[in-house]
Amino acid sequence: MCVKSGTILRKGRARIARKSARLLGSSPTVVFLGKRGVGKSSTLNALFGLTLDSDAAKECTTTPKAVGVKAAHGRRLRAVDMPGIAANLETAERYRRPYEYWMARADVVVWLTQADVRSYTQDQKFFRSFGPLLARDAQVVVAVSKFDTQDPAVGVAGGGLDEALHAEKLRDVRDQLTPYVPPGRTVRLVPYSAVRRWNLDRLAAALTEADSGETPGAPARSTPDPAPDKPTSSPAPKTPHTPGTEVTPR
Question: Mean pLDDT, to the nearest integer, of 175-202?
Answer without folding.
Answer: 92
